[in-house]
Amino acid sequence: MKKNPPPTRHLVLALGMCIVLVGTVGTAGADDAARCASSLQSAYGKYFACALKLHSRASKQGDFTGDVDFTSCEVRLDKIVGKTFARYGSACPEFSSSEIVEFADQCVGDTASASAGMLPAAALTTVAEACTGPVALDRSKGRCLPLAEVFAAHPPKIDSIDISPNAPAGTSAGHVLPTASVRVTFARTELKRLPPSLEIDVGERKPVILEASATDQAVYTGTIPWDSKVWSEYSAALEQSEAVAQGRDTPVFEGRVLAGEGPASGGFFSEFLAPGGSTSSVPVLPVISPATVDPDLTLMITDVNVVEDPDRTFDPCTPSTGTAMGKWTFGRLMEEMANPSATGLDPSAFTLDLLENWLVDQTVNGLSIPARTAMQSVIDRWQLASGGAGVPLDLSIAPFRLMAIVNRVDLRGNSPYGGGGGGDCGEGRFVFGLLNTDTCDPLRFGVILEYKVNLPGCKPCRKYARKWLDLQDPTLGGPGDPLYNDELENLTDIFSLGGTTPGNPNGSSLGQLRTNENALASQWELREFVLSPATGLLVPDTTKQNPHMPLNFTTDLENWVNPNAPIICANDFTVPDEHPVGAPFLAASVPYGSASFFDGVSSATLPDRCARFELSLNSCAGCHARETDTSFCHVGDGCTRPIGSPALLSGFLTGNTVIDPADGTPTRTFNDLARRQSDLWLAAHIPCFPRLALPVLAAEH
Fold first, then answer.
1. Threshold 0.85, pTM exceeds
2. What CA–CA distance (Å, rounded) separates 655 from 669?
3. Better-scored residue on pLDDT, 591 or 14
4. Any idea what DSSP says for residue 519?
5. H/E stretch holding 684
6. How many other C-beta atoms lie within 10 A of the C-beta of residue 384?
7. Which of 328, 357, 509, 539 could lock onto 495 through a cystine, CB 3.0 to 4.6 A?
8. CA 372, CA 523: separation in Å to the nearest integer?
């Protein structure tokens, strides 16, 4: 069997360590799991050493880039793995020989490349650093990652959390340091994922460690700092939320689909005050009425008094009522993104370079994106208004109309895992529509600037969410009131100003810029851009979670979906760049129509219909078309907004019922703003420790 190590990956990790820590639960009843993990680690190490030796030999013979025959290594690996699985059975983690080969070959390729000088020598150090501490297999990304990163994106399911305040156990400078004993019971389905201990961010200077029980593999115990004020406030907030529900059942969502209704969660703190300090069960997944949060003030802000704020916005069609280069104008945001004081980039040239991407064919992920040369007329009109043909674009008259400011704190990870040392607090977004400045007609061309909120850790994220929630405070006066708009600007500054994420290109917090249009050609098309670490310019990138459109209704799509159906159905998946290796799979752009959705050749050849639905819903084409019964744009009719009017919102956001487009059944109900309303309340109120039970919305949109 011929094997040629795949291209260098950004993260290369030692699978042996991955196998040990995924397969070992650290309890007395897990001896077989530990022995299996040890055997698989040994198998990995032997295969890796064998493959690296053969690859090194081929390199010395001048065949560095050619195929290397690893068959002898694989035969030995298969024998060890077969014996291991036969001996330990279900105690083993769910690895196959082919998975071990795949990961080991990545390591072989990267190690050999670094050794040959094709990568910096530091690449080998990166391998070691990536595997410092617990690591785990993230099947959605097809590689091992630090355990904290995996759990932050895919937290293990928790059945119960019990807390019991302790008597004062110590003092510091004369002050009592109260603590509480905690007991976390994980779902039995998570046992193979759990390591011997977990590091949890509880919002203090140091994380706490939860240790696995010696008698029950699913139970972890530890001691956390106990702030009775925080917990009593949380309990009181739950009581207030329950009162808002007024006894009515509250929507309950599974992912983004309305799954049913249930009673709102109530308070619990009084249980802590029972005689003897009895243990209290804290709500694991509180049911919160959406009525506790006003989405128009806190989540999807389309009010004309904001999107046409005279001090912060500018519309070239009504220049007398705005402020050129105001904080929320397209031109100002592009200037902040270019960050000229730190990068030396000219913001005008930076913006022109983005637009010129449409003038020529682009290649992304080995796939071609055909030019849409009608963009030249957009550039010509802007240049003419700036002073004449060929002159620099005047960003102060950028032909883009603000349609919405969007709070996507629901896209945050689960910050308590790993001591809160990484991740972000979701996204903040600006949604714009392009204008024809000759006629002042809106064009069907939407642009979304999607920023990561660089506030890692539990306490900063909780405080940030609380500030969004505070926008509904009546004393702020609402949209248009100087107090409200000032507070909103303070929040958008956190992610939109230059230098807000120093480690990123240009120091910008931009995650991606997306466009959705049929103004340049008759067919709607979605594109995605990211800031290049090399140049600081916005460059075309893959459209995440959307397979290449010609793969739809083909066996090539089925060949990826079917073996990955469980993680797709669980919405824990990432559409790969390639499948199989060398064959582009992830889309470079998404040309689509009103009836677009994803499916296999037939329901018989793609039997897991849950996987079909989740793949389609999370794709750009499905989400913006038939899977959610959306007419191309979620904000704005055709991604447009008339002056003086708020942008229309899609039924997916405000509530609609959709018949499955592939099978005609089931019927699903969406109301994504209601889901986000409940989530914002949780993000703002839940104390740090019980946040580890919150699920993560594994979505790009």
1. no
2. 7
3. 591
4. S
5. helix 672-685
6. 14
7. 509
8. 11
